[in-house]
Specification:
The structure is a single chain. The longest helix is centred in the C-terminal third of the chain and has 71 residues. This protein has a four-stranded antiparallel beta sheet with strand order 1-2-4-5, with no helix packed on it. A two-stranded antiparallel ribbon has the order 3-6. By secondary structure, the chain is α+β, with helices and mostly antiparallel strands. Helices cover 68% and strands 13% of the residues.
């Protein structure tokens, strides 16, 4: 719906162009001679007049140009809104993806704790475990169960956020894929990305609005130039009673030409100055937005590179090492070479690192969506295996 609003805003602005092309409405007047005026050809009884005002040409041409630029600016704002929605959807989607992946991993960990609990009870019967061991496992299981219960509410909130970003009905069913996002780095250099910032829809729209105000200033200034009036009068004349008049009853037709004399120069000048000041506002906003975009580009590129580094570290080194340590300690616990505390510590380390991997993957996807929103277009990429 928010994108539809931007579309309708653009559509409405396109209809203003034709409005700027119109001339002032012609004026038709009718006059009835209450006291008849007797002329040589006869008494004048009715008078019909049609008058058309014609403004200085710049009033129309600059008005049309201003409206056209405003419509183009509205179109670019629509494009910018679409980019923003893509980023919002991506952010909400990968947030929900992390929650679902976290739930699955923690369910797996809970199953392992249940296995350890049954194993410890069996070991307790043969004096190879203590009640403290059983209590520690129960405590760890209770904590993990509470975390899983908390994820239910987080998942509902994340689903609501994604549905809102999509503009979908509240009861929409959301399906999240298990696959992680692709790991990407820009295949373009920073200079190319910087060059695209000035063509960003949001930044370009501000420039178009500044140009439209320049045209509007010209139109307002032209209001102070002379305008023209063209008119035709038709006078209906009756038959005269005077004998020997050949033109008796002949109606009169009058062509009128006039000039509008502008007297309120201070008013027209104030309207022009207002439009020029508005143009200066848009140009300043455009410059500020470009500066902000350049800073945001550097920050987001750094976030993308850092997320790639973290994903590679977790995926290739930390998680495999933690899995090896956990498997070794768990095997040692079965043979009596490792303590339960070591098993629970190794399990917690593995869980933290797995969650760290998920977060790094989601952070990368969100940063990439933010990068394309900042640049204002699809960024050429290369995938990192």
């Amino acid at each position: 719906p928010s994108l539809r609003a931007k579309f309708d805003e653009w559509r409405a602005s396109t209809h203003r162009i034709a409005q700027q092309r119109r001339l002032p409405e012609p004026i038709f007047t009718y006059g009835l001679y209450l006291s008849r005026v007797e002329t040589r050809v006869g008494p004048q009884r009715h008078r019909f007049s049609l008058t058309q005002a014609v403004p200085w040409p710049t009033v129309l041409t600059s008005g049309v140009d201003a409206a056209s630029l405003e419509a183009e600016g509205a179109q670019r704002r629509f494009d910018a809104a679409a980019l923003s929605i893509v980023r919002r959807v991506s952010t909400a989607y990968w947030k929900l993806w992390v929650i679902k992946r976290t739930r699955q991993v923690q369910k797996d960990q809970l199953e392992i704790l249940r296995y350890l609990f049954e194993s410890s009870r069996a070991r307790l019967e043969v004096d190879r475990a203590s009640l403290a061991d059983v209590g520690q496992i129960q405590l760890a299981s209770s904590r993990l169960t509470d975390v899983l219960s908390g994820l239910d509410e987080k998942e509902r909130a994340a689903e609501a956020e994604l549905i809102t970003a999509l503009g979908a009905p509240p009861d929409t069913k959301i399906r999240i894929a298990d696959d992680p996002p692709p790991l990407l780095l820009p295949a373009e250099d920073t200079a190319s990305l910087r060059a695209s910032l000035s063509a960003h829809p949001a930044i370009e729209s501000l420039g178009l609005m500044a140009e439209s105000r320049t045209e509007r200033a010209d139109a307002e200034e032209a209001e102070g130039y002379p305008g023209f009036l063209v008119g035709v009068d038709y006078i209906e004349t009756g038959e005269t009673e005077m004998p020997g008049v050949e033109d008796s009853g002949k109606d009169a037709v009058i062509l009128r030409l006039g000039v509008k004399i502008p007297l309120w120069w201070n008013v027209y000048g104030a309207a022009r100055d207002e439009a020029e000041a508005q143009g200066a506002v848009f140009r300043a906003k455009q410059a500020a937005s470009l500066d902000e975009a350049q800073g945001a580009l550097d920050k987001t590129l750094s976030e993308v590179r850092d997320a790639v580094r973290r994903v590679k570290l977790y995926r290739s080194t930390l998680v495999p090492q933690a899995e090896t340590v956990y498997g070794s300690v768990l095997g040692g616990y079965q043979t009596g070479d490792s303590s339960l505390a070591e098993v629970l510590l190794a399990q917690r380390d593995l869980l933290d690192l797995q969650l760290g991997l998920f977060k790094a993957q989601a952070d990368h996807a969100v940063a990439w969506a933010r990068l394309e929103e900042i640049v204002g277009r699809e960024v050429r990429s290369r995938e990192i295996k």
